[in-house]
């Protein structure tokens, strides 16, 4: 197909060890991407490993990391490291449950999608970053209209209508928190190549809004009206 070319990876194993770039003819514009390669083996030896840190790069011990829908899990050690053995092969959903950490404060639960290679230890390409939740400004939602704001972030608002929230346990009322996240240490890549400078986590994970909650964000990226 015109404009397409198949690229064959080299012989090295590891994360992000292969890099390809493409330059638009006649310009200085280019795009690049990296690829990882792992050796396959016995499916029963498949594992997932990684490290869980806070936004100041400190390890978080006793965070429970599990493969969703299975009994396979592990807890992080004093260095924040974990390894889950005998995990399924293929597409899995990894859950990092910060509620079990022994670190002071309340911490979120986050979910990640990844694809495991049979028989390999599948290391995460980056640390899992958890941010300590702002429980001071959390509010009870469900029984009335509520607007959550952030005192240190003028212009931010999350407007939650009465009866619109369903929490993960099925309840219609509960505590909702909003916490800013360090943009350089976000726990997962934003979709569609976006690189916003202002990011928050709304907890608990899995809370559903119907009708959707109205979200107002400060224009820290300096976008023009209507952008």
From TrEMBL:
<dbReference type="Pfam" id="PF13715">
    <property type="entry name" value="CarbopepD_reg_2"/>
</dbReference>
<dbReference type="InterPro" id="IPR008969">
    <property type="entry name" value="CarboxyPept-like_regulatory"/>
</dbReference>
<protein>
    <recommendedName>
        <fullName>Carboxypeptidase regulatory-like domain-containing protein</fullName>
    </recommendedName>
</protein>
């Amino acid at each position: 197909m015109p404009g397409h070319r198949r690229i064959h990876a080299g012989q090295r194993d590891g994360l992000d060890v292969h890099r390809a770039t493409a330059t638009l003819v006649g310009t200085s514009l280019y795009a690049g991407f990296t690829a990882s390669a792992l050796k396959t083996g016995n499916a029963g030896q498949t594992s997932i490993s990684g490290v869980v840190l806070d936004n100041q790069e400190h390890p978080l011990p006793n965070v429970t990391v599990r493969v969703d829908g299975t009994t396979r899990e592990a807890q992080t050690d004093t260095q924040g490291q974990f390894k889950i053995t005998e995990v399924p092969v293929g597409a899995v959903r990894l859950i990092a449950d910060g509620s079990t950490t022994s670190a002071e404060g309340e911490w979120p639960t986050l979910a990640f999608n990844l694809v495991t290679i049979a028989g390999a230890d599948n290391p995460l390409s980056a640390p899992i970053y958890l941010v300590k939740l702002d429980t001071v400004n959390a509010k009870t939602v469900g029984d009335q209209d509520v607007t959550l704001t952030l005192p240190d972030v003028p212009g931010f608002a999350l407007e939650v209508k009465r009866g619109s929230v369903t929490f993960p346990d099925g309840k219609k009322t509960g505590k909702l928190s909003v916490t800013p996240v360090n943009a350089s240490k976000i726990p997962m890549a934003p979709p569609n190549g976006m690189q916003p400078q202002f990011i928050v986590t709304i907890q608990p994970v899995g809370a559903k809004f119907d009708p959707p909650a109205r979200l107002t964000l400060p224009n820290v990226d300096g976008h023009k009206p209507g952008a």
